[in-house]
Specification:
- This protein is of the alpha+beta class and about 425 residues long.
- It is about 45% helix and about 20% strand.
- It is built from 16 helices and eleven strands.
- A six-stranded mixed beta sheet has the order 1-2-6-3-5-4, with helices on both faces. Strands 7-11-8-10-9 form a five-stranded mixed beta sheet, sandwiched between helices.
- Strand 1 and strand 2 form a beta hairpin.
- The chain is globular, with a radius of gyration of 23 Å.
- About 45% of the residues are buried.
Length: about 425
């Protein structure tokens, strides 16, 4: 399997990887325009725009967009993150030109019909309401807000309901004009694909577009803080976060290995100590998320109002203990989990297409799988212990609590326990 890269004169980047033996392909457009590229008055517009792309173009109705892909047995979807928006499809080899035509059409030629804007506004408001009714979903938005207050990176991707209620056609076209240029697009395809054919099609579709310039983002500034939301729920939902390395940081892989060993699976310390030995929760895990210029190490759990104090305290204890006695076997197991997850994800053309797009957005090149595996293997027990010690010494943290939280410890109390 060979990755091929081409950049058009206007800046559009094209990446393909042919996977022999596959009859299908994944093809999509990734744009370096997400939630953190919005101004305050635009918060939620990137996600709104993603929805509106499927509501009709100059050539296709909303129904035709869905039918043309599903008539050939494929599927089409999109997502918005804090740093990217993606539009992608999975189809059989013969239908790759169709998928590229549909995806480019919905991105470049949406009509933004006023009636459809109103319909989709209601859909998004329902989505916001659903998120608020899903504690183990909304708590991560609140944690993000506590970590990065009054910053684009700390705002919800969906946007607040009052702002979404006011968006109009001009808001959508304005964001497109600012961010949807070819120099902010990555066309990525994997599976049963022909690089030269995709480049020719891309030249015809995108070649005349003019660059818009690099999208500006406000540099992240980790602040930390606490947010408590009292509600009559069965459980307290607990999420605590610490600043972590960015995707470009030399400690990025040490953070990932640490997170996996501490709370990445059933054999992890948090799962074994807090769920298996003490029975304090059903779900507990950690994750290390990374952005362009910062990151967040997060631990999440849900437990009863009576046991939140014990759970939170033991979580801090396990973080401290990891800096003192993380074993070689634990580090080796975490490295193996990460490499297996990497390779399993690359068995899918969708996984390969997304990986290429993300790597191009971050580094301007696609890292070989062997290079990534070597970076993981290079993480030593000393690296993990050192990173764990840094986590235990952090004076700032972010805490989000939701549910019957009256007995939950404060962020200051947790910081004190962690530093003791």
């Amino acid at each position: 399997m060979t990755i091929r890269l081409t950049t058009l004169p206007n800046g559009l980047r094209i990446a393909t990887e042919r996977m022999p033996g596959l009859a299908s392909a994944s093809v999509g457009l990734w744009l370096t325009a997400g939630g953190r590229h919005e101004r305050l008055d635009q918060n939620g517009i990137a996600h709104f725009l993603e929805h509106m792309a499927f509501k009709g173009t100059a050539r296709r109705t909303a129904l035709q967009i869905a039918e043309e892909i599903e008539d050939v047995g494929g599927y089409i979807n999109a997502y918005t993150s804090r740093e990217m928006t993606a539009y992608y499809a999975r189809v059989l080899e013969a239908d790759v030109p169709l998928a590229l035509d549909v995806i480019s059409d919905i991105v470049l030629n949406p009509v933004f019909d006023e009636k459809e804007i109103e319909t989709e506004r209601h859909v998004i408001l329902q989505e916001i309401g659903q998120a608020l009714d899903t504690p183990d979903d909304i708590i991560f938005d609140w944690l993000q807000e506590a970590a990065f207050p009054d910053q684009p990176l700390g705002r919800t991707i969906l946007g607040p309901a009052e702002r979404v209620s006011g968006f109009g056609r001009g808001d959508l076209t304005g964001f497109v004009g600012e961010h949807y240029g070819p120099d902010q697009m990555i066309l990525s395809a994997a599976g049963a694909v022909d690089h030269d054919a995709i480049v020719r099609a891309a030249e015809a579709i995108f070649g005349a577009l003019m660059p818009v310039g690099a999208g500006r983002i406000q540099p992240a500034s980790w602040t930390g803080g606490e947010r408590r939301e009292v509600k009559d729920l069965e459980q307290v939902h607990f999420a605590i976060g610490f600043e972590a390395p960015s995707v470009r940081d030399s400690e990025f892989y040490a953070a990932q290995v640490y997170s996996t060993a501490l709370g990445g699976g059933m054999s992890s310390r948090l799962f074994q100590k807090i769920r298996e030995e003490r029975g304090l929760c059903y779900s507990i895990y950690s994750q290390a998320g990374a952005y362009e210029d910062t990151g967040m190490f997060t631990i999440y759990a849900g437990t009863s109002a009576e046991e939140i104090g014990d759970l939170a305290g033991l979580t801090m204890d396990e973080m401290k203990r990891a800096a003192e006695d993380m074993s070689e076997a634990e580090v080796a197991r975490a490295r193996a989990q990460m490499k297996a997850g990497l390779l399993m994800g690359l068995e899918s053309p969708s996984g390969r297409a997304e990986r290429m797009a993300r790597h191009l957005a971050i580094w301007g090149r696609v890292q070989d799988v062997e290079e990534t595996a070597a970076e993981i293997d290079a993480v030593t027990r000393a690296d993990v212990r050192g990173f764990a010690a840094g986590m235990a010494d952090r004076s700032t943290a972010a805490l989000a609590l939701y549910g019957p939280v009256e007995r939950a410890p404060t962020l200051d109390a947790l910081r004190t326990r962690l530093a003791a």
